[in-house]
Amino acid sequence: MIKAVIIDVDDTLCMTEASSFELENEVLATMGRPPMPREVHLSTWGEVLLEAMPQRSPGLDLDRFAELFMTSMQRYVAEGRLDVIPPENVAALDDLILTGRAVMLLTSRAGREVRHMLEPDHVLATRVSGVWHRESTRCGKPDPRVFDELLAHTGLSPAQCVYVGDSPGDAIAAGGAGMAFIACLQSGVRRLEDFDGRYVTAAVETFPEVVTVVEELSRTPG
């Protein structure tokens, strides 16, 4: 029985790669640096931002970038250009909750990069029962131990959870932890053949399809 649906943020709950690419290049331009090519951004997408930026812009002043990035990110969010959760995805979360399942987030983002999603007036405020980010987990994806804190806090077993994500690293982390994994391919950034099939329980083209898959997994013996 699936009791908890754990969800990645970027390109899973909301589509963010294209907006993030634009945002990061805007910050680089502010710093007087050349733009990164899209293929470089795509090849490092899913990595922790400040760990990926030296590849995206070699020689970058990371402290200055981090400072400018947060200011620009807050503006993008306020303008509705980043982290917009589509109504159909919100409805899917409600459907999962109506079936008695907890909804949680687990992301590679830093805490300050998800803080706005935890505000009392955010659509996730009454829907998400827990958020785990880079500072609240000892390990990062694809290490399966990234789920340790979540499982310890909730008392759930891996068999009672399913993780929904968009990257091969998400799949490896979930599979290594003994957890079912649903690959969300909606962004088009990755294809199913990019994943190690050993770790993929199911794949969906759009996030709302997760509701049906979770029901099917709950009816599957073992």
UniProtKB/TrEMBL annotation:
Keyword vocabulary terms for this entry: Hydrolase
UniProt xrefs under InterPro entries: HAD-like_hydrolase_sf, HAD-like_sf, HAD_2, HAD_sf, PGP-like_dom2
A UniProt-annotated Pfam family: HAD_2
EC number(s) from the headed UniProt entry: 3.1.3.-
GO MF annotation list: hydrolase activity
Protein name per Swiss-Prot or TrEMBL: HAD family hydrolase
